[in-house]
């Protein structure tokens, strides 16, 4: 690893910390500032913050690695995510932005649900807070695994700490940097760094596939196609070995968007409802470019590896391997900064949402109802550190797969909160008991499904992604229980307004 790489990375770290200190001076005076940036995000910042916090290290590690190993058929995950994100902006974004402010300025998803369904307020806040903290610990761990793999592959020659492995050093260094700007600057720091990180990620995913495609003999689309056809005639087929359940398991990743707290919280922070369409257009454009780049990286990276006899032991490190081989050290540093950006943007967002839930839905609810704003901000900072340390221990296994951890947490949130959020925003007859039933049903179904291994093999056949049964059963549970327990005193949104049912 050459000195130029360290210069680029040092500049990136200084920029992230500088943004953190700027946000600390501008927007950490009270809990609304610390948790939602005062609801003053511009459309571009909100859009790229949602995208960068969503994509994480799986965009540059997990997805290219899956395509590198299995071919274009893995692109169905990206297609499903794109469709799901679009409908999330259409269905959830405008309604959540308006209703969370109308319902007594709710700052977290559990707080919104408790005010939307006052008859089950305590149960909703408690259960949803537990679900958020548990699944975010796993989700954050996936980002730390990516950080550990990055350091192990690229920076192992930089630091020698005796009994500490390169992987462990990578986990704790990644965590230390993220914690610094997240603890200091809160939501505004996370959102502004997400914006910068999103731009870096997109540029990297434009540059990298093009350079890989046209490097070496037999390059270009034609050369790559011939190389891959020699390896596997169906490598570039979207349907190679694709079963019905395999197709469903891939495209239904898109269902998860409706229930991801770290993504939909950005909708709550956009400046005005009128700016939601602009944010949607920016966000979807960024996502299309980034997904195409990640798909191209995995496919063209495999062609390059075959053509040049390159042995890639872990497909999820193809981005790191090619960045080191093909670019000037200063550019390599920029590309590795893009990977760190993908990792850190998601970790910081997840830590802040989990911290906000612990602060608002546990500490303030059960321990200190009269806590002042300064105290709540400080408690929020302490909770960020607590969740981070737990996630670091979960990520301790160097054999962990980024995409596997992400898929588990993604399904947990999607099944637990997805049907709940959609129906809470759109169905006036939903009851508090139905909300609790859906939340519990979705989360438990996913946990049981994972525990029984049915995601890999179901009843002797191919596996079914756990978000499918979780989402369906949660949706059914909400509808059935709501119809059985509808109460006249429940508050429901009518024409987007918080009014008592009549």
UniProtKB/TrEMBL annotation:
- How the protein sits in the membrane? Multi-pass membrane protein
Give the transmembrane region(s): 6-24, 45-69, 75-93, 122-147, 167-188, 195-215, 235-258, 279-305, 325-355, 376-396, 402-425, 432-452, 464-482
Instruction: Alphabetically list the UniProt keywords.
Output: Amino-acid transport, Cell inner membrane, Cell membrane, Ion transport, Membrane, Sodium, Sodium transport, Symport, Transmembrane, Transmembrane helix, Transport
- Pfam families to which the protein is assigned, alphabetical: SSF
* Protein location: Cell inner membrane; Cell membrane
Report the superkingdom from the record: Bacteria
Catalysed reaction(s) here are: L-proline(in) + Na(+)(in) = L-proline(out) + Na(+)(out)
- Coiled coil as a keyword of this entry, yes or no, is no
Is-annotated flag, keyword Cell membrane?
yes
Protein family per UniProt: Belongs to the sodium:solute symporter (SSF) (TC 2.A.21) family.
Record function comment: Catalyzes the sodium-dependent uptake of extracellular L-proline.
Q: What name is this protein filed under?
A: Sodium/proline symporter
* Species: Fulvimarina uroteuthidis
Q: What is the lineage of its organism?
A: Bacteria, Pseudomonadati, Pseudomonadota, Alphaproteobacteria, Hyphomicrobiales
UniProt lists the gene as putP
């Amino acid at each position: 690893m050459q000195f130029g790489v360290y210069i680029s990375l040092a500049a990136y770290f200084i920029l992230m910390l500088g943004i953190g200190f700027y946000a600390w001076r501008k927007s950490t005076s009270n809990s609304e500032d610390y948790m939602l940036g005062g609801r003053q995000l511009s459309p571009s910042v909100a859009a790229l913050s949602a995208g960068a916090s969503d994509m994480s290290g799986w965009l540059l590690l997990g997805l290219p690695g899956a395509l590198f190993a299995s071919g274009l058929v893995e692109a169905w995950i990206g297609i499903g995510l794109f469709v799901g994100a679009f409908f999330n902006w259409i269905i959830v974004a405008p309604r959540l932005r308006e209703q969370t402010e109308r319902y007594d300025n709710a700052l977290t998803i559990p707080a919104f649900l408790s005010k939307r369904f006052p008859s089950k307020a305590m149960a909703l806040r408690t259960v949803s807070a537990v679900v958020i903290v548990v699944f975010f610990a796993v989700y954050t761990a996936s980002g730390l695994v990516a950080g550990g793999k990055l350091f192990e592959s690229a920076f192992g020659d930089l630091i020698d700490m005796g009994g500490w492995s390169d992987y462990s050093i990578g986990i704790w260094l990644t965590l230390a940097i993220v914690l610094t700007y997240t603890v200091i600057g809160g939501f505004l720091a996370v959102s502004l760094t997400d914006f910068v990180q999103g731009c870096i990620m997109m540029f990297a995913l434009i540059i990298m596939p093009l350079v890989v495609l046209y490097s070496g003999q037999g390059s270009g689309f034609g050369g790559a196609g011939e190389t891959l056809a020699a390896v596997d005639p169906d490598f570039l087929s979207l349907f190679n070995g694709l079963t019905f359940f395999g197709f469903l398991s891939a495209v239904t990743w898109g269902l998860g968007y409706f229930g991801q707290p770290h993504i939909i919280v950005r909708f709550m922070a956009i400046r005005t409802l009128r700016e939601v369409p602009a944010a949607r257009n920016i966000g979807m454009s960024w996502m299309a470019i980034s997904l195409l780049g990640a798909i191209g990286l995995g496919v063209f990276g495999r062609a390059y590896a075959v053509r040049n006899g390159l042995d890639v032991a872990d497909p999820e490190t193809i981005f790191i391997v090619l960045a080191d081989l093909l670019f000037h050290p200063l550019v390599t540093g920029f590309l590795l900064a893009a990977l760190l950006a993908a990792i850190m943007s998601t970790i910081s967002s997840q830590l802040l949402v989990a911290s906000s839930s612990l602060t608002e839905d546990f500490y303030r609810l059960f321990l200190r109802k009269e806590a002042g704003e300064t105290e709540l901000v400080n408690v929020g900072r302490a909770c960020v550190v607590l969740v981070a340390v737990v996630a670091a221990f979960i990520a301790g296994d160097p054999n962990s797969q980024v995409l596997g951890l992400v898929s588990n947490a993604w399904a947990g949130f999607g099944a637990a909160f997805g049907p709940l959020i959609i129906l809470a925003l759109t169905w006036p007859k939903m009851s508090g008991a139905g909300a609790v039933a859906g939340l519990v049903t979705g989360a438990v179904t996913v946990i049981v499904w994972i525990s029984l291994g049915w995601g890999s093999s179901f009843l002797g056949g191919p596996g079914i992604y756990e978000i499918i049964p979780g989402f369906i059963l949660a949706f059914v549970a909400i509808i059935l229980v709501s119809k059985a327990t509808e109460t006249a005193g429940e508050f429901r949104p009518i024409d987007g307004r918080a009014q008592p049912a009549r």
